[in-house]
Structures are given as structure tokens and as C-alpha cells.
Amino acid sequence: MLAEFRVSNFRSFENEQVFSMEAGKVRNNLSRVYTDGKFKLLKFMAIYGANASGKSNFLEAFAFAQEIIVTDIPKNAKNDFCRVDEKNAGVPSHFEFTIKVGNSKYVYGFFMLISKGTITREYLRQHKYGSTYKTVFSRDVVSGNYEVDTYFKEPTLNDRLKIYAEDVCQDGSVLFLRLMNQNKSGLYQSDSPINIYKDIYNWFKFKLSVNYPDRPVTSYSYLSDSDGVDKIGKLLHAFGTGISKFRIIDIPLEKVLADVPEDVVEEMSNALNEEKKYYEKSGISKIPSVVIRSLADNSMFFLNLKEDNITCQTLEMEHEQTSAMFSLAEESDGTVRLLDLIEVLLCRDTERVYIIDEINRRLHPLLTYNFVQQYLQLAEERNIQLIVTTHESKLMDFDLLRKDEIGFVNKDETGRSAYYSMDSFGERFDKKVCKSYFEGKYGAIPQFKL
Questions:
Q1: How far is Cα 69 from Cα 47, in angstroms, rounded to an integer?
Q2: pTM value?
Q3: Residue 449: what pLDDT?
Q4: Is the predicted pLDDT of residue 125 greater than 90, yes or no?
Q5: Which of 165, 189, 346, 449 has the largest count of CB atoms under 10 Å?
Q6: Residue ranges of the ATPase AAA-type core domain (predicted)?
Q7: How far apart are CA 59 and CA 208, in angstroms?
Q8: Domain range spanning residue 323?
């Protein structure tokens, strides 16, 4: 689960911004706050702001850092530093995550000179007590200094880590965390303490899901079992789509992949196999799946890995008062958007973090409200988190959300964005905050100059 995210010198964010999922002192709806001896975490956050305020940039910061950790340094991102001041081209950008992995809290972060595409510093620390941390590893690429041999007690293991670190002590082209998860499966044995390198990496790869409008939120793997199919049918009907039932049909794989480049097919195949290995090791009963969506219409195809064979499926819908079946391409944009989001309500992958840009896109305001309401009810039983950006004012309601579940992104006249929480305003729980928001009390609204 996510406790905190820090970012500086990225796009419209120049100074360090702190996004926290740590619960405040709010007393209502405590049943949906995750609490144990080390954590008191929110499971929902709605972020508001005017168009071009920086909301999407904030989500891009999550995705940018995740891509560097899991895949590689983007080659087309050399201008993603905060360009409101040309001096920022020479200032390292900072990305830091505080996360719950297992029963412990870890802080992982790195500094990167985006204009040059090079890592300058990197660190992983385990939170112990109060403000006390224990370094798992750290390195300063500029000086070549590193520390990898103080966290573990086994001398042989520490010697091996020092060899890995020495090889890349001044290599700014790759993160050490990523390097430790490339072609080193033999290093990670069951119950070995070094598995923390794998566990932290897997959090970014499999637990963090950053999503944008017009893209499926998930892999639709919940369609692979009859229980999931039954639940999604009931949800679609309950949300007033007019769909009475739907079915999954098999289609020839070669028909779907005929126009897909070979390298993309290979990439999808590798992703499915990696996902399968992760599920098997984690004891998760889930079929690996990826989605292909047509840019021309709403059609989608689901590629599933079952017993080492890739199969392909799609959906057909039946509406009330008719026996005719309709393809997904014939459904409304709102229905397809709801299908994109509905995995959040069916998620069985504990401690998964969903980040969704413009959750209300193509949805009626009441449908958006009801969707969030359904999620919050489920959040009382499930340890997952949902972070969304939105313009939907109906959600800004203390009957629905806690004060600390509402945040804002505001851009000043110089083009710099800042994030802050509703909790910082100390509003009464019975205040009509939507009215105050449109009156400009909290900022983060359009400024018209007609």
C-alpha cells in the first residue's frame, strides 16, 4: 500500500510536493481506514483542480517513476523537468515512495537529471521506529560511493552485493533496484532476506496501476472465472446500463494478432509469462491476461495465458427486453468506460494501488458518485487503494468522503503547480464544501479573464 509520494522538478512541479495517504485526525468512516501498529492509511483520494492545473502531471510523475524502475529510462523525456526556470535543466529531479510491503514500511527513491537521462542518486531504507531508518542500500553515482553491505548479516551475501554495486557504482543509465531484478532469479530463494529487493520491485511492477482515459484500467483477468462473470453482470445491471447479461466468446488468436507487429506480440507474450510466474510465487489464483483495444471503435480483445497456451476472447451483451446480442463496439462509451473501471470493485489482489485520471470521463455524475460509493463500502473489507483525479463536484460531499480524502492541485501565475489537502483547511464535517470550492475558497478552480 502507498503511504506517501514525493516529487520535485517534474513538469509543472518545481518545489517538492508531498502527497500523503496517511489518515488525518478525522473521526468519521474509520472502518475504511487501514490501521495497524505502523500504518494508518486512507484507501481513497479524490484530487481536484482546474484544467491544466497539473493534475495529470501529478499522475504522470507516478507513471514516469514506475517506468524507470520497471522498464527503462524513457528516451523521449528529456524535457520533462520543470521548465518554468531554465536552470532546472541542471537540477536533479526527485521521486520518493513510502510504501507498505509485508508488515514493514520502506522508503525508496532516486534523483535523476532528466535533461541528461541519468540517475544521480538512489536509496532504499526500512523504517524502524519513530524517525529511525535502516539503509538497505544507497548509492551516489556522481561520487561512486555506495552502501549495500550493512543491512544483511550474511557475509557471503554482502560480498555478492558489493560485486553487483561495484559494477554500476558510477553507471547512471540504470537503477540498482532494477539491475537486481534482471536475470537474477537464482539469487532469490524462499525465506532469504535478500528477497526484499524482489518484493520492492514487484510492488512497483504488479501493485501500482496508473491509468488514463480511454485505456483499460486492468487486464480483465476477472473474466476468466464464472464467479467474476456473474458479479460483473450484476454490477452492469445495477449501474443502469440496460444490460441484462453478457457472455464471453472465444475468437481465433491469429485473427486478432494479424495486424499487430511481431515485437508487440513478443512483448505481450513475455508480459503474460512474467505475470504467471509472479502469481505462482505469490500464491495468487489469477489467470494472466492482457487487453488489446481498437483505436477505431470500442472493441476489445482479451489474451489469456492458460496452461502455457494463449487464448483470445471478447464480449457480447444482451439488453433488457431483447434477445439480440451486441458486441462491445456497439455499446455506449459510458458502458465501455464502466467496464474499464469495474475491476476496482472486483479486485482480489490485496494492497493493490489504482491511480485513475479523470474517473468521471464519459460517466453520468450520479453513476460516478455511485461507483465511488460502492468502492468505499468494499474498502471496509479490502485493503486496496484508489486515487483519482476528477472534476465531479458531486463527490465533494462530507456525507460521502472524509476531509482527508479530498486533495487539490493548483497552478499559480508563474506556471508552478502545488498539491495540498482539504484537511489543511480545518473545515467542519457538516460544511457544504462544494459551494465553497466553486466560490474559490480552496483554489484549484479556473480563473476566467474574459
A1: 25
A2: 0.90
A3: 61
A4: yes
A5: 165
A6: 44-112, 271-397
A7: 12
A8: 219-346
